[in-house]
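BUG: 3D viewer hangs when loading the predicted structure for this chain

Environment: internal workstation, default settings.
Expected: structure renders.
Actual: progress bar stalls at 90%.

Input used:
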Amino acid sequence: MKAYRPEIDGLRAISVIGVILYHAEFTVAGHTLLQGGYIGVDVFFVISGFLISQILLTEIEATGRIDFLRFYARRARRILPALFTVIFATIPVAYYLLLPAELIDYANSLGSSLLFGSNIYFYFTAAQYGEPNALLKPFLHTWSLSVEEQFYIGFPLLLLIVRRHLKSRFLPCVLVVAALSFIWCVITVRYDQQQAFYSPLTRAWELLAGTLLAYYEVRRGRPRPQPFLAAAGLVLVLGSLILFKKNTVHPGLLTMIPVIGTCLVLAFASRENAIGRLLASRPAALTGLVSYSLYLWHYPVFAFWRSTSLNFDNSDKFLAIAATVLVAVASFVVIEKPLRHTRRSRALWITLSSSVATITAAVLSAITMAGFPHRLDEVYPPLAQANEAQLESTFLGLNDNIQDGKPIIFIIGDSHARNWSIALKNYIDTDRYQIVALSYLNCMVEIKNDSVKAPSRASIYDKYCIPFERYINDKSLLSRTKAIFLTSLRPFEYSVNPFRFELLSWMKSHSDDARIFVFGNYFQLDELHSCLGLMFQRKSDASICLRSASYPPANQPLAQLPFFPSDLAFTYVDIVKLHCDYDKEKCLTSSRGVPFITDWNHMTAEFLTTLIGDILEKKTADLRSDGLLDFLVPPHAGQSERTASSQPNAGPTPSASPSN
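Structure tokens produced before the viewer hung:
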């Protein structure tokens, strides 16, 4: 039996602390600390590959075989009790806090983690690790457990095959597989960084680096402790944690630095040198012992805390870490340690099997019941939801009956174009103009040789990109275009789709001297919160979203913003100023039971229809001077009733509601 090496637990401690601080995102003077903390997972991979390979190689050297049942039973004892504890603890919290779509995603992540395939699930659901929305996925961190489990399945089989058929060729085989994995990693990260991040094929070399070290130790014994090499290894690990940035290409060539550093520490640190004694110190070793529980608990604690806190500041982050430590230590003492070493195997397996069945039932219930949408009825009535869904479904049909000869108004934009187009069509003088509504959502737009190419980033977006490319290149439409409306998220700031103003210039050059109007945004939250989520969690109406909105600021100096097109003639339509002059007490928050936004930034079609009608009715003089009334008409009698009922105290069922 191998002697316990506390310095390995000390290395685990550094890894888990790095990962936790990375996900906490502490900020000092506007700078985020420890942006390279994600490297902690790579250190875990090397340690895991080293320890597991050591166990298997020792067994196969001694007996000539691998006891798979015993091996996987030990893995299950090590991994499942703590994992199931976290799952059972978070299920009621998720039911209480998460919106239906979020609950379905949560359930799918639980199911995939049970099958040790969450890395695959998160890759195919486009979870961008480290991005704001990914920080709200409670089980995103289980991707690394899945990579390790996939290694535990593949490596013993490789070991057996080599042992039986290639005899003494184990070392060359591992070197070849590791080299191929590394090369594939370096190639893949260039064109699909998320695949490189989540794939076991691009991560295998890190685990196999630990395998190579384990093979050396099993065959030749531990290398003699080398203080300088141990110190160099620790410097490489700590340097990576500190110096790597969020935009560092990872995993890739630079990932070799912490991997080599980890191998040096594992090989040459011992109690005979200062690095070994430092890592083996009681605080470091104890933290390492609890590292698995700390890793399991920190992400859901952070995710739920972020979703409920309007300002997840440094004090909240300290409290979240304190809560993580508390539940992790309790989980380790009460669950992980006792069940890992219990002699009551029958009771343990019955408990684990029952847990799998219960979690599976919960997952299937959440998915088949569509996330239990009835939970929203109190804050977002079903009839209002249905009406909004029906409105939004009309977007793709707006271009079905384009008439020859009639002057054109183009409405273009990103994901905001859908609801803006649906709302604006109610006020465009269709006796005079024909609408062409297009979205370039996830289209890779490029203007080349006097034409626009717009292939989609994924087939799901073909419904937007194919008509966009078709109509935007139709010179017969462009030649009779009188106006172009741009509806974009933060049009002068949003770094995605930077081609938008070049596109406007190109369209104008082919038009009948079209007027360009750029529409501003209404009130928005930060990316970590959705309006419907706040309404659901606080059991409030949409006024809580308006009060919490952090954007747009009043009197924003547009010309100083990074994407302001100083060489393009256009009219900016500041809808917040026109509607309520940035006085939140006077701003509408809902229309006919539909909140002004349900996510963090997209206005709903119902609310936009009311808002535009309100502006057209009350700001006629301003809009006429801007030229917008050459293309839009104030609301008709039926639509006047819609805005008239939005006054304060208009009765128990007003169409629109002002902020309270």
